[in-house]
Amino acid sequence: MKLYCLSGHPTLPCNVLKFKSTTIMLDCGLDMTSTLNFLPLPLVQSPRLSNLPGWSLKDGNAFLDKTELIDLSTVDVILISNYHCMMALPYITEHTGFTGTVYATEPTVQIGRLLMEELVNFIERVPKAQSASLWKNKDIQRLLPSPLKDAVEVSTWRRCYTMQEVNSALSKIQLVGYSQKIELFGAVQVTPLSSGYALGSSNWIIQSHYEKVSYVSGSSLLTTHPQPMDQASLKNSDVLVLTGLTQIPTANPDGMVGEFCSNLALTVRNGGNVLVPCYPSGVIYDLLECLYQYIDSAGLSNIPFYFISPVANSSLEFSQIFAEWLCHNKQTKVYLPEPPFPHAELIQTNKLKHYPSLHGDFSSDFRQPCVVFTGHPSLRFGDVVHFMELWGKSSLNTVIFTEPDFSYLEALAPYQPLAMKCIYCPIDTRLNFIQVSKLLKEVQPLHVVCPEQYTQPPPAQSHRMDLMIDCQPPAMSYRRAEVLALPFKRRYEKIEIMPELADSLVPMEIKPGISLATVSAVLHTKDNKHVLQPPPRPTQPTGGKKRKRASDDIPDCKVLKPLLSGSIPVEQFVQALEKHGFSDIKVEDTAKGHIVLLQEAETLIQIEEDSTHIICDNDEMLRVRLRDLVLKFLQKF
Amino acid sequence: MPEIRVTPLGAGQDVGRSCILVSIGGKNVMLDCGMHMGFNDDRRFPDFSYITRNGRLTDFLDCVIISHFHLDHCGALPYFSEMVGYDGPIYMTHPTQAICPILLEDYRKIAVDKKGEANFFTSQMIKDCMKKVVAVHLHQTVQVDDELEIKAYYAGHVLGAAMFQIKVGSESVVYTGDYNMTPDRHLGAAWIDKCRPNLLITESTYATTIRDSKRCRERDFLKKVHEAVERGGKVLIPVFALGRAQELCILLETFWERMNLKAPIYFSTGLTEKANHYYKLFITWTNQKIRKTFVQRNMFEFKHIKAFDRAFADNPGPMVVFATPGMLHAGQSLQIFRKWAGNEKNMVIMPGYCVQGTVGHKILSGQRKLEMEGRQVLEVKMQVEYMSFSAHADAKGIMQLVGQAEPESVLLVHGEAKKMEFLKQKIEQEFRLLPDAKKPRLLHGTLIMKDSNFRLVSSEQALKELGLAEHQLRFTCRVHLHDPRKEQETAMRVYSHLKSVLKEHCVQHLPDGSVTVESILIQAAAHSEDPGTKVLLVSWTYQDEELGSHLTSLLKKGLPQAAS
User: Nearest CA to CA, how far is B249 from chain A (Å)?
Assistant: First the structure.
């Protein structure tokens, strides 16, 4: 039982679990923080951006991939926990010789597809005249200015995938439902559980009949739109792998939403525009719902809300059809039938408008002041680049960061100097450390495994001892490119005993409450399921066909004799011998026991506490008679 | 052997009031709770008194499972839970849970308001009944209690229709409900994994039919509708509000669009819009194509199809009307039918199965003079057409499903006896058990039973765990050999002899001069009295008894003459 840790990013994990002859990859997140090393990709060539000192416009889209710790073509299955954690899927399914199956819920696949589509679209619509890759050579990289010089493992940075690769990767996914028990080769059972973080997000249970590993990734206990987290099913785990905790442990999501609304209202009332860099799915649904309740009371009914993304329409539409994956409140709406999210009404009343991009209808509808939701949150590509350029110079405007994945200061760096206001309201609904310790108390796993970042306070707040996982026994930590041996051994396998065989077993009570039965049976194994059936009857030698060749008479050694236990009381043994017609018996005492002599038969029987030795002439009849006498005094196992 | 008992309380060898009682591993599960459209008396509902004569149903049944929202599968539910009395869980999928109460209310209105029946379930009872429902996801394994688990599979047929696997320990039953193995215009095909149930209970409505391709039927349907409209006739299509109706709407909508037709299409009752809305919200339950394109164009937003008003029936000129219910047994479809039946220009298309006793069944079987209430006789002059659009699996589809699930045995229900017999033979012909390829192995060990915990361990470990010492029983036999040579040479000869005879065993010659066969030790010693005789001491443990005694008898026969 081993865990191969391929990602050092705690919220974008990628681990491989080897369990009972199966190789299971848990998530394949794509760490895009390296894009911050690059310049923004503007729609129009901007002389300002390309002339910035200290930054060089290299091959603009490269992402961090994994080290070759393990041959990825041997991975049997990939379990996806949520749509953010599947962004590296095409790299694995298309370029490593992977031939297995990917399991994910339907919302995860559909929204994951949208995120990938958006990413590909953002990158592909600004084709580059030239791309450089020679700089990744270590000797050249050394000479480059910081931070490129200091970037680690640039050789693993990859170009963005294409839509074709995305489609091919997604075609390898098999859809699953919560609490579905999925058999892997009959050896292991995996089950997705609701994790409460996003539409269709799941934790996974990987178990055999006697071992249980829980994989907790990106979970939330807050009541937002997804189905609540299923905690009870995580109980009795041998190992709990814990990843995807909140990235902003000090911020309270509810407070942040309040701050978001009030800052938005303030800016708009003063005639400024609000820019919200965001992903096309997830928190945006909650933000829109808050605004739906907030705009009338804040007097913002006339302010247009724009949602610009190649997948904006799809994202809004898809959110309405996953009723079964939503919290109870939203689910009951569908029974009426009404759309579960209020943004349907915002669209109907023309308060919220969505566009695939800046081109086309948007330019004619565009009114200011307004609120724009658009991507990408890294500010390096997507329509957000244009709005940063457009609104950055005016102090009336505000950019509000809600996504916690990127450092907002670094994201803003290439746009400096900036006049517009910057508000940082990271909304991360994933578990914080207080919730984690409550959860661990509740589910009580034997061992906890987590990224090393969670076993110490964050570097910026090293005094906050409460910002780390505290459990007993201490959590085992992993770091990128490490292999952990998980601390438990497999000892048992489930076997079914057929009723016919069970009938034939004779249990004897050895100690109070403990019975034993000797089992001789035939083990049938099919699809890793084991069944014990009664042994075949010994075949009677057929009388007429006796052959003389010695090798034919070799007995089947596979018929096993039981072990013996107990001891032989000499006096009773001698009595038994006499009863069976042996005479002339002599008993001698030795240091460890007795020797029984049958002088007539030239036979000697050594009896000790836990051994008996019969030495006789080659007289099979005699030997068998003596054997049966001895066995009467012993227990068989 | 595992015992599974199946008792059909309805729809054993007919169609209507589906209700099957399954006892498996000490658990009792009721599958579906339907009503019969052809009866208005006691025979309308299944005979629940069969389940238990005295005592509450709740104590006897562990759960109730509803496969889909058709009334012949869920129509008796409020009667069963509220009037007979059942408080346990009722499982169904989300779309079924959403749509089921609407159809029940519809049915109740027709029965009570139109036919004036007393002692029928009330609206409140429908609501109370639905409170006992637990919604399940596709493929979700629902743990009803510690031992009983159920799992839903996609069945096609209608929105939200599901097949259910019921499992207790290692025994399982799959109940298909109604299903469809070919995707249609709005639903996908049923699918099940190779779950190898002990028993597969499958519907067999179309047990003998192998239906022609869907395209041909669609073309036929459109042609007939088109012809009738062209000659100025009115077309009545009796349907159930949800299901077939949506498929035919999609069909006509696209046809009207393509042919640029002007004749109005109406859909009766207020259900239409609501029904279509359900389809929009539960679009994940429709087929691949609709799901893929719904963002661009939602197939359930119809341009040409408008809501029907009773007054429209007397409008001059051609029109197409979808009206409920589907078997012409009551309600609006029957009203319109009576109005239009006298005109030979008009047409009625029955797109689904009709239960015996309904007007639909009568006209399909060729009856042209119908006795209506109050001794009125209605003469049917209008064209009567039947088109099998109802989404049941045909013989081929049923065989396909049997192949997918690989059950040990198959039980046919929900069909006509004769047709079942035919299908039974076909299944028996086609599927025969294949023997296992893998070689079984003999195993020996000790079963330790402590409380209810059973562990099979090696005998050595059992002894160790219980703190018992092993008692070694050893035999040593003296075999006299006539051999004047030295002991070492004798041993050598014994070795080479055994080596050549016992090819399957490990025979070794040890440095101290002794020979071993597996764990059996053979030593040669000089005879104390006769120098021409050597004594072979053959020693083995009880566990090696067979081989040991075999060896002695082998050695007793003497050694072959040494080759020179």
Answer: 20
Range of the domain at A275: 253-424
Lowest model confidence (mean pLDDT) among A55-64, A175-184, B338-347, B513-522:
A55-64
Residue from B276, B221, B274, B275 nearest B251 by CA? B221
Q: Does A615 touch chain B (CB under 8 A)?
A: yes
Nearest CA in chain A to B455: A492
CA proximity to A185, closest of A204, A162, A206, A202: A206
- Asked whether B163 and B21 are in contact (CB, 8 A), the reply is no
Q: How confident is the model at residue B213 (pLDDT cuts 50, 70, 90)?
A: low
User: Which of these, A107, A22, A119, lies nearest to A61 by C-alpha position?
Assistant: A119
The answer on A367 and A300 residing in a single domain is yes
Number of domains in chain A: 3
Question: Identity (one letter) of the amino acid at A224?
Answer: T
| Residue A460 touches chain B, beta carbons under 8 Å | no
CATH label of the domain that carries residue A621: 3.30.310
Q: What confidence tens digit (pLDDT) does each residue in B92-116 have?
A: 999 999 989 988 887 888 778 766 7
| Residues with Cβ within 8 Å of residue A183, at least 6 apart in sequence | A189
A513 inside domain:
no
pLDDT digits (tens, 9 = 90+) for B428-470: 888 765 555 567 778 888 888 888 888 888 888 888 888 888 8
Mutate which: A210, A564, A568, A598, vs B, most B CBs within 10 A:
A564
Q: Which residues of B touch A523 (CB under 8 A)?
A: 440-443
Query: Does A87 share its domain with A104?
Result: yes
Same domain, yes or no, for A149 and A294?
A: no
Please indicate, yes or no, whether residues A480 and A585 belong to a single structural domain of this protein. Answer: no
| A507/B472 CB distance under 8 A | no
Question: Which residues of B form the catalytic set?
Answer: 203
Note whether A456 and A581 are same-domain residues.
no
> Would the CB atoms of A532 and B474 count as touching at under 8 Å?
no
Residue A456's CATH number: 3.60.15.10
Q: What gap in Å lies between CA B290 and CA B303, rounded to an integer?
A: 17
Shared domain check, A439 and A420: no
Amino acid at B215: R
Task: Give residue B418's pLDDT.
Answer: 82
Domain boundary among A390, A409, A424: A424
Closest CA–CA distance from residue B295 to any residue of chain A (Å): 6
Better pLDDT: B198 or A296? B198
**Structural domain includes residue A556:** no
A561/A520 Cα distance (integer angstroms): 9
CATH number at residue A356: 3.40.50.10890
Q: What is the 3-state secondary structure (H, E, C) of B308-344?
A: CCHHHHHCCCCEEEEECCCCCCCHHHHHHHHHHCCCC
The whole-number mean pLDDT for each consecutive block of 10 residues of chain A, a chain of 637 residues, reads 87 90 90 74 54 37 50 91 92 88 95 93 72 56 55 61 92 93 91 95 94 94 91 94 92 92 93 95 93 86 92 93 91 89 92 91 90 92 90 94 91 89 94 93 93 90 87 88 83 86 85 85 83 74 43 46 83 87 84 85 85 85 86 83
- Taking chain A, what is the end-to-end CA distance rounded to the nearest angstrom? 32
Tell whether A547 is covered by a domain: no
Shortest CA distance from B444: residue in chain A? A520
Split at pLDDT 50, 70, 90, the class of B155 is: very high
Q: A259 and A179, same structural domain?
A: no
Contacts with A171 from chain B: Cβ below 8 Å: none
| Domain end marker among A376, A403, A424 | A424
pLDDT (0 to 100) of residue A535: 82
Same domain assignment for residues A445 and A419: no
Question: Is this prediction's ipTM beyond 0.85?
Answer: no
CA distance A342 to A317: 12
Q: Is residue A532 part of a domain?
A: no
pTM: 0.82
